[in-house]
Amino acid sequence: xxxxDTALTLIGLLLAVWTLGxxxxxxxAGTKAQKAEASRKHAARLSRMVDDAPAVxxxxxxxxxxxxxxxxxxxxxxxxMPSFLSELAGEDRGLPKxxxxxxxxxxxxxxxxxxxxxxxxxxxxxxxxxxxxxxxADAQISPGGAALVWFFDFxxxxxxxxxxxxxxxxxxxxxxxxxxLIEAAPxxxxxxxxxGRLRLVNSAYVEAVDGKSAENVIERQVELVEPVDGRxxxxxxxxxxxxxxxxxxxxxxxxxxxxLRVSDLPLGGEGIAGYAVDIEEVEEQVRAFRxxxxxxxxxxxxxxVGVAQFDGKRSLIFANQPFRRxxxxxxxxxxxxxxxxxxxxxARDSGRLPEARDFPAWRDExxxxxxxxxxxxxxxxxxDGTHLRILSQPMPDGGLTLVAEDxxxxxxxxxTRDTLLxxxxxxxxxxxxxxxxxxxxxxxxxxxxxxxxxxxxxDDVLDSHPRSEELLDVIGNSLxxxxxxxxxxxxxxxxxxxxxxxxxxxxxxxxxxxxxxGVPLPDGNGLLTALDVTDSQRAAEALQARxxxxxxxxxxxxxxxxxxxxxxxxxxxxxxxxxxxxxxGVAGDLSAQGKEYVAAILASVERLSEQxxxxxxxxxxEAGLLPLERxxxxxxxFVTAIVREREEAIxxxxxxxxxxxxxxxxxxxxxxxxxxxxxxxxxxNAIEATPAGxxxxxxxxxxxxxxxxxxxxxGKGMSAAALARALEGQAATPVAKRDGLGLPLAKQLVExxxxxxxxxxxxxxxxxxxxxxx
Length: 774
Fold this sequence. Notes:
Blueprint: H1 5-52, E1 55-60, E2 66-67, H2 70-76, H3 97-113, E3 117-121, E4 130-136, E5 147-153, H4 155-184, E6 189-192, E7 198-201, H5 203-208, H6 214-220, H7 233-238, E8 245-253, E9 256-267, E10 271-278, H8 280-302, E11 306-310, E12 316-319, H9 321-327, H10 340-349, H11 359-367, E13 376-381, E14 387-394, E15 400-406, H12 408-430, E16 434-438, E17 444-447, H13 449-455, H14 459-463, H15 468-476, H16 485-496, E18 502-507, E19 513-520, E20 526-532, H17 534-584, H18 592-623, E21 631-634, H19 635-644, H20 647-652, E22 656-660, E23 667-670, H21 672-689, E24 695-703, E25 706-713, H22 720-727, H23 742-752, E26 756-762, E27 766-773
Parallel strand pairs: 22-24
Antiparallel strand pairs: 1-2, 1-5, 3-4, 4-5, 6-7, 6-10, 8-9, 9-10, 11-12, 11-15, 13-14, 14-15, 16-17, 16-20, 18-19, 19-20, 21-23, 24-25, 25-27, 26-27
């Protein structure tokens, strides 16, 4: 039977579908086989991972059956895993009964309420520590409400935890002790976080910033140190990355400005710790020490002795000016720290060391000054004649202090003193005056040869240096009155003990008269000096007798002057009076020749009266009996009146007059009559000594408050010898008044008014008289 095309088509389609289905089934079967193999491998891998995992699971079903790997049995000390949870406990293995009961209770609670639990267990007879973490198992693991318990073996961790707990406990104790120490510390301490904010401060910090509490200070971030140069304390602390930072700053603490040394210490990545030490007292001590050192060195610079200091490294750290001058140290020796050996070398080159044959050995010997236990004292004689005294004193810090004293002048003074002592002894012995020196205790110290001869003392007595009491007993035997020896003793005692001078006179048996005196000496001793005044006493007596005669003569002269004042004036007044009567015609008219005689008589009377007044004033002035009637005088008016009285004489002599002055010159105090006579004498002398055609200058003024009157002429003048004789009243010829008594009288009258008269003259040029009045 033949199939139609449609049937064939359907059969082909059917075969194709069947082929496709078979192919699909084969592909699906291969895929499932691959998945099953993959699942098996995955399960084996997970099982292996569980076996190698640090935790071992145990599945506890609702009926108490358990499933767990054999590794858990080894942890529990069992040969194999039992079937039920209750079989995990044993007498010498497995879990302890108490632990198993607690585990059972936790498992039941987890199965019922799905509450997880944690506990720790240790198998019996084992040091293994197990941590149990239990919870309700997933339904895919056990759909019957089983509990899954994970066992962790943390034996090693437990040891580490124990150690860490111990260390933590110790650290906690140490931290508590450290916190207590920091809290009790007397200096401010603090701790900053990595951002620079304060996290911890102690009570000293709180007190320093006047805070209420540490929490308050931290909350307000109160800083102990204020910003310096725009950088706050936190900024400076944050810069401490490479290591600690220390700085010295000032801060106000308890209302006082104090100096602090602030230190910031980085503590890894935790933060920065800091503390502040109050160094104000240290700074004050440093300042005081620095001031003391500067004052000491300034004082040492004022000393006349040289002082130098070497430090422990044997370098020069100080040398005052005398030391530099003595050894000729170069500039900058102290600044450069000149070494001791180099100083010796320099001093040797400068000739400031004594000569030494073996200088290296000598230098080594003196280098031992630094290590010697005591100081040394040496005398150095230099080549230029300088003598130095060198004192060395080792210092506790290993340094050395040197003192150099230039004793050249002292030795020279000592030699000079010895020479002076010998000179004094020789001088004492060569004096005619008796000298003896007594100590304050009255013991004789020193005497000269005249002392023994004056007082009649033997050399053996003086050589024993007797006391004054013993010496007075011997001296009393030489006196006319032995009791007068007491006077000598009183003089010695006054000079030595009372420190005052006392003297007297005694007469010796041989008629000599000794004048003695006790004089205190600067050294505390007393000097007894005696002089033979026998001849002077006799001369004094003679002079006294002569003085008495002179006093009687002076009294006679005074009486004579008083009488002469009356005896001279009375007859002269009578002559002048009768001549005036004749001139007036009382006795009748006179002839022309008679009138000439009367005029000559009156002129002579006037001249004689003036001479008498001059002689009397000069005599009274020399005798100190000149009476002065002082009153105030207008200076220029007074001098002008004196000049006008001589206008006629100036006109007759053909002279010219130049009067200079002013009424504003003020007044002077004096006797108008006698002062006018003195100035008149000077003016008359100028008129008479100046030839016709000459000129006279009268200049009135003041110099330094004193009145000055200058009378000058261009007359014939005088030599120096003639002027000296004129001032002494020893004129060669009585023609001119300047050569008579006029100048001496004028000088005495001016000096009687407290002034001075100075006369200068030169032959052919004229004379100048200068009067100065107070």
